[in-house]
């Protein structure tokens, strides 16, 4: 059996020329292909390729020009915000510096010890007063609670002017 009957590849009917003997097969890719031998019958549209190229060019233009320009113009606002923050921080630092200077004196240390630690000097007596708790305002209806509700109402909303004293 010969190998010609088993191959599915069409062999050329004419043998290769002597001039093609040392030539690369890549040369075949640059030659036009006959229409009847082409795999795809229609050529691709160059419009799609042009749209892709325009999209890539637009993205590059935006990345190289548009975004830096927006950043440049947005810097003024950010610089102004940072300047305001800097002024506030400098004010806080100055207040803290004054507080440190005040606490560096003996009177400042004594005052801080009284406030923070409850320090009492010899011969002094410390009395702690607590704030009054909030008065409940959701009392039930009925006899003793209606009087208490009236008192709470008067204390929370005092009258504008005191009533004139009756003259006998």
Quick take:
By secondary structure, the protein is mainly alpha-helical. It is 52% helix and 0% strand.
Task: Describe how the helices and strands are arranged.
Layout: H1 27-30, H2 46-103, H3 106-117, H4 143-156
What can you see in these coordinates?
The protein is mainly alpha-helical and 168 residues long. The chain has four helices and no strands. It has helices spanning 27-30, 46-103, 106-117, 143-156. It is elongated, with a radius of gyration of 49 Å. It starts with 26 loop residues before the first helix and ends in a 12-residue tail after the last helix.
| Strand residues, percent | under 5%
β-strand number: 0
Helices and strands: which structural class?
mainly alpha
Order of helices and strands: HHHH
Overall radius of gyration = 49 Å
Q: What percentage of residues falls in helices of 4 or more residues?
A: 40-55%
pLDDT < 50 runs, ≥5 residues: none
Question: Could you tell me how far the N terminus lies from the C terminus, measured between alpha carbons in angstroms?
Answer: 150 Å
Summarize the main sheet.
none
User: What overall geometry do the principal axes of the alpha carbons give?
Assistant: elongated
User: What is the average of the pLDDT values?
Assistant: 80
Q: How many H/I helices?
A: 4
């Amino acid at each position: 059996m010969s190998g010609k009957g088993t191959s599915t590849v069409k062999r050329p009917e004419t043998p290769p020329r002597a001039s093609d003997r040392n030539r690369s097969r890549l040369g075949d890719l640059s030659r036009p292909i006959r229409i009847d031998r082409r795999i795809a019958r229609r050529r691709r549209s160059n419009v799609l390729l042009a749209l892709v190229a325009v999209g890539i060019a637009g993205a590059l233009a935006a990345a190289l020009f548009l975004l830096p320009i927006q950043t440049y113009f947005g810097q003024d606002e950010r610089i102004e915000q940072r300047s305001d923050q800097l002024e506030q921080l400098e004010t806080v630092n100055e207040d803290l510096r004054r507080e440190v200077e005040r606490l560096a004196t003996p009177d400042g240390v004594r005052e801080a010890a009284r406030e923070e630690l409850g320090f009492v000097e010899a011969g002094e007596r410390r009395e702690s007063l607590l704030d009054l708790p909030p008065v409940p305002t959701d009392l039930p209806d009925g006899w003793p609670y209606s009087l208490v509700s009236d008192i709470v109402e008067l204390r929370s909303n005092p009258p504008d002017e005191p009533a004139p004293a009756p003259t006998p």
